[in-house]
Design brief:
- 2 copies of one chain form a homodimer.
- The first copy, chain A, is of the alpha/beta class.
- In chain A, a hairpin with a 3-residue loop joins strand 8 and strand 9.
- The first copy, chain A, is built from 11 helices and 14 strands.
- The longest helix of chain A has 25 residues.
- A 5-stranded mixed sheet of chain A has the order 3-2-1-4-7. In chain A, strands 10-9-8-13-14 form a 5-stranded mixed sheet. In chain A, strands 5-6 form a two-stranded antiparallel sheet.
- The two termini of chain A are 18 Å apart.
- Chains A and B meet through strand 11, helix 8 and helix 9 of A and strand 11, helix 8 and helix 9 of B.
Chain lengths: 327, 327
C-alpha cells in the first residue's frame, strides 16, 4: 500500500483533516467545529478524534501529520504560542502531544506559511521557485518560498509582511496590517463617516457605525460607494508599497494574494500595481512578475499541511520533492 | 597538490585578486588600478593580467574564479549590466569572457551579496545560518543568507535593502539609500545649513557647501557638531525602521553592518536600535539578535569571491560547504 499524508487545518471555527496521497490529492476529508470557547482540552480531544477518522488502518503507511495553525507559533519546537482566535491556548506543545498520541512524525506550520507551500505546490504559483503568498483578511499574513524552500528564519518568525514598518503620510509608524486588513478598512471608513463624510455604509448598518466591518466596506464597494472605494484604494496603495519592498528583497517570480479582502480585487489592484510600478528601482522587478489571486480556496490549509510533511517541515526543496513524487 | 580558488574584487578604483585555499585563507594576493576611465577593454585586459599573477602553474588545481563586482549585474548569466563606477560597461558578459580566456568555471556576484557570504564564512557572522549584511557607503547595499544559502531571487536582483520603499514624515516615498547613504547625509546637511542653521561643516569646507560629502559630515560628528549629529541620527533611525522590516521578513540571527558610514557607529547605533525596539511586533525579533560591525575590512570582497566559488555561485549551503572543507 502506498504512503499517505495527514493534513490538518486548525482554525478558530472549524478543524478540518484529510488523508492525502503523494501528489497531495485529497483522498478522504472530515471536519468538526473547533468549539474554541470550550477551552484547550476539549479542542485537543477533537483534533485527535478527527485525525483518527482520516487515518488509514495501517498506521505505518502514514508519512507524517501536518498541522496548519494560526500564529504566533514556533515551527521549530512545534509549540502554539497564543493565537487570538484560540482563547486559552498558551504555549501548547501540539507537535509533542500529537506525536505521543499517534507515534507518527508531526509538523506544525503557521497558516500563511502553509498556504504559501500549498499555492506553490498545487495552486496559483504551481511550478515556481520564488514565491510570495500574501493573505489580506482580518489580519495580513504571508509566506515566502526562496528558491524552492520555505523561509522560516531563526525561530520560524519570518515572513510577517503584515508587520513590516511603514511610515504614513502624517509621520506615524504603522504596518500593512494596521492600515489595510479588513478591520483597518472598517476603522478608516468609520472615522471618515464620523468626520461627516457621507457613505452608503451608514445605511447598510442603520447608523450603527460600531458594526461596520470589512464585509460591510466590501458591500459598499460593490454599490460603487465613493468613500468605500477610496478606503480600499488606499489599502491597495499601502499593500503595493509593501510589495515594492518585497520585490527588492526577494526578486520573486510570482506573488499570490488571497484572503477575504482580496475579493475586492478590481478596486484593490489598480492602486497596488500603480505603487509597484512607481516606486520600484527598475522595471526588471515587475515586468515579468506574475501577480495572481489565490487558487485553492478552502482546501489551501489541508493541502499545505500535506506539503509541510512532504518537505519535512518546509526545509526541503518543494519543487524537487514534488518532482520526485510525480516522477 | 590541493585545489585552490581565485577570488577577484573588481572595484571602481582598484582590482584585487588572490589565490585562496579551501578554508578561504589568502595564499597570494596582487592588485592593480582599475583605470576605469580608460574604458572597457583596457580594464578587462588588466583583470586577465591580474588573474594570471595569482594562478598556480597547474591550472587544473583551480576550482573556480569568483568575481565580486559592482551592481547592477546578473549572477545567473554572468553579465555586468551598467555600474555607475565603471563607465562604458554596458551588458558585459564578464563570466563568459574570463571562462573563454582561462577555461576555468567563473562565478559573478554583486559586491554586497559577496560580502554577505564573506562575513558569514569568515567574518562577524561566522557560523550563523540566518544572516543579513548591510553596507552603508556612497550607496546602501545588502546581502542575505537564508538558512545557509545566498538569497538571489529570480534574476539575482534580490537583497536590495537600499531600494525598499519608505514613506517619509512629509508623505514622500523614498528609500534607505536616498535618506541614509553618505551622499544623502551630505545633502541633508547642506540643506539645513542653507536654511540658516549653523554647523562646523561650513568652516570645514570654507563655505563651499557643494564640497560637503559624507566624510565631512563624519568629521563634524567627531567634533560633536549638533547639526551633523542630528543628520546621522536621522539616518540611523531610517536604517533602523528598514531593519524592522528585515527582521519581520527574515527573522535573522545576526545583522552585520559595514561601509564607510558605519564608522559613525556611536552616533548611528542608538537611534537605530531604538527604532528596532520601538517598532518590532514582538521582542522575540530583537532580543537575541546580534548586530555586529563588519569584521573583514578590505579583504571582504576577495574572501567572498572565494566563498562564491566554494558554494557554486551561492546556491549551495555555505555552512555545509565550509564544514566539508574544514572536516
Amino acid at each position: 500500500m502506498p504512503e499517505v499524508i495527514i493534513g490538518v487545518d486548525l482554525g478558530g471555527t472549524r478543524i478540518r483533516a484529510a488523508q492525502l496521497d503523494h501528489h497531495l490529492n485529497i483522498l478522504k476529508r472530515e471536519e468538526m467545529l473547533t468549539l474554541a470557547d470550550h477551552g484547550l482540552e476539549p479542542t485537543i480531544t477533537r483534533i485527535k478524534d478527527l485525525i483518527r477518522t482520516v487515518l488509514p488502518e495501517d498506521k505505518t503507511r502514514v508519512r507524517g501529520i501536518g498541522i496548519s495553525a494560526p500564529g504566533p507559533l514556533n515551527p521549530m519546537t512545534g509549540v502554539i504560542v497564543a493565537p487570538p482566535n484560540l482563547p486559552g491556548w498558551h504555549n501548547v506543545p501540539l507537535e509533542r502531544i500529537l506525536h505521543e498520541q499517534f507515534d507518527i512524525p508531526v509538523f506544525l506550520g503557521n497558516d500563511a506559511n502553509v498556504a504559501a507551500l500549498a499555492e506553490a505546490a498545487r495552486g496559483a504559483a504551481s511550478g515556481y521557485r520564488h514565491v510570495i503568498y500574501i493573505t489580506i483578511s482580518t489580519g495580513i499574513g504571508s509566506g515566502v518560498i526562496v528558491d524552492g524552500r520555505l523561509l522560516l528564519g531563526r525561530e520560524g518568525l519570518a515572513a510577517e509582511f503584515g508587520h513590516i514598518a511603514l511610515v504614513l503620510e502624517d509621520g506615524r509608524v504603522s504596518t500593512p496590517e494596521k492600515e489595510a486588513a479588513g478591520p483597518a478598512l472598517a476603522r478608516r471608513a468609520r472615522m471618515l463617516i464620523s468626520q461627516g463624510q457621507s457613505s452608503v455604509i451608514s445605511e447598510l448598518v442603520n447608523g450603527d457605525l460600531d458594526s461596520v466591518d470589512g464585509k460591510i466596506v466590501g458591500q459598499a464597494v460593490a454599490q460603487g460607494d465613493k468613500l468605500a472605494l477610496e478606503v480600499v484604494q488606499r489599502g491597495g496603495r499601502i499593500v503595493g508599497l509593501g510589495i515594492v519592498t518585497l520585490l527588492h528583497m526577494f526578486n520573486p517570480e510570482v506573488i499570490v494574494i488571497g484572503g477575504g479582502v482580496s475579493r475586492l480585487w478590481d478596486t484593490l489592484y489598480p492602486p497596488m500595481i500603480d505603487a509597484i510600478k512607481s516606486y520600484s528601482m527598475d522595471s526588471a522587478y515587475w515586468q515579468e512578475l506574475l501577480i495572481e489571486r489565490a487558487g485553492l480556496g478552502e482546501d489551501v490549509s489541508i493541502i499545505g499541511a500535506g506539503a509541510l510533511v512532504a518537505t519535512n517541515g518546509g526545509v526541503e526543496d518543494l519543487t524537487q520533492v514534488l518532482q520526485t513524487l510525480n516522477g
